[in-house]
Design a protein that fits this description.
Largest sheet: 4 strands, antiparallel
Radius of gyration: 25 Å
Number of domains: 3
Number of strands: 12
Domain CTCHY-type: 83-147
Helix content: 10-25%
Low-confidence stretches: none
Keywords: Metal-binding, Zinc, Zinc-finger
Strand order of the largest sheet: 2-1-3-4
Distance between the termini: 76 Å
Shape: elongated
Structural class: alpha+beta
Order of helices and strands: EEHEEEEEEEEEEHHHH
Mean pLDDT: 87
Domain RING-type: 148-191
Pfam families: zf-CHY (PF05495), zf-RING_2 (PF13639)
InterPro entries: Znf_CHY, Znf_CHY_sf, Znf_CTCHY, Znf_CTCHY_sf, Znf_RING, Znf_RING/FYVE/PHD
């Protein structure tokens, strides 16, 4: 057991603590992990040389303790250490930091973090969501299999936390908070409101109920109310009303 744990948390990169490196089959180069590979190749001068590593294609790893290259396995065939406390044979994934709660989702086809008991797989959205969203979110087909509308990083296998908005679309949590800080309250994809507009609508109803506007303005309000569900965000609707009425 002591040999298995030798060097635990003492090797790795900024992405993972692990006791092995991987040989990328796409370019035959050695990297600490697939993210290190992708970051390096994305900076290549020739755009056609840029590429990403498909994790399931990895067949060879190099033990960081004894420097032995070998087929993918949990334990080093030469020095006998665990090359990762967590190991997924499907994803060819190693990680010594098991406090992350790693688990493999067969439906997603990749490993995720946060503890299996805290997530469920939504078949329509085709991704793992927090159990708090079970029967409590708007389903959008393949909602995670696209790029974050703010930073344009692919969401499905991103290392960053993701937020599911009221409309069902997704984006990085940090990007969402930055958007709110900049007073942008609508989904960048469908323009629906990301916040509860109940109070704002109540104030508008009260103002309309005072009959201080002409019949023509009332008609404009009704038309905009019909359009808002299809083309614009609630806040955008209120801004237009202010321009018309004041």
């Amino acid at each position: 057991m002591e040999r298995l744990d030798f060097g635990k948390m003492g090797y790795g990169c900024k992405h993972y603590r692990r006791r092995c490196k991987i040989r990328a089959p796409c370019c035959n180069e050695v990297f600490e992990c697939r993210h290190c590979h992708n970051e390096a190749t994305s900076m290549l001068r020739k755009i056609f040389d840029r590429h990403e590593l498909i994790r399931q294609d990895v067949t060879q790893v190099i033990c960081s303790v004894c420097d032995t290259e070998q087929p993918v396995a949990h334990v080093c065939t030469n020095c006998g250490v665990n090359m990762g406390e967590y190991f997924c044979e499907v994803c060819k994934f190693y990680d010594d930091d098991i406090d992350k709660g790693q688990f493999h989702c067969d439906d997603c086809g990749i490993c995720r973090v946060g503890g299996r008991e805290n997530f469920f797989h939504c078949n329509k959205c085709d991704s793992c969501y927090s159990v708090s969203l079970r029967n409590n979110h708007s389903c959008v087909e393949d909602s995670m299999r696209h790029h974050c509308p703010i930073c344009y990083e692919f969401l499905f296998d991103s290392l960053k936390d993701t937020t599911v908005m009221k409309c069902g679309h997704t984006m990085h949590t940090e990007c969402y908070h930055e958007m709110i800080k900049r007073d942008k309250y609508c989904c960048p994809i469908c323009s629906r409101s990301t916040l509860d507009m109940t109070k704002a609508w109540k104030r508008m109803d009260e103002e309309v109920g005072l009959n201080i506007y002409s019949p023509r303005v009332h008609l404009i309000i009704e038309l905009l109310a019909c359009l808002v569900n299809f083309f614009m965000d609630d806040f955008c609707f209120i801004r237009i009303l202010k321009l018309l009425l004041f």
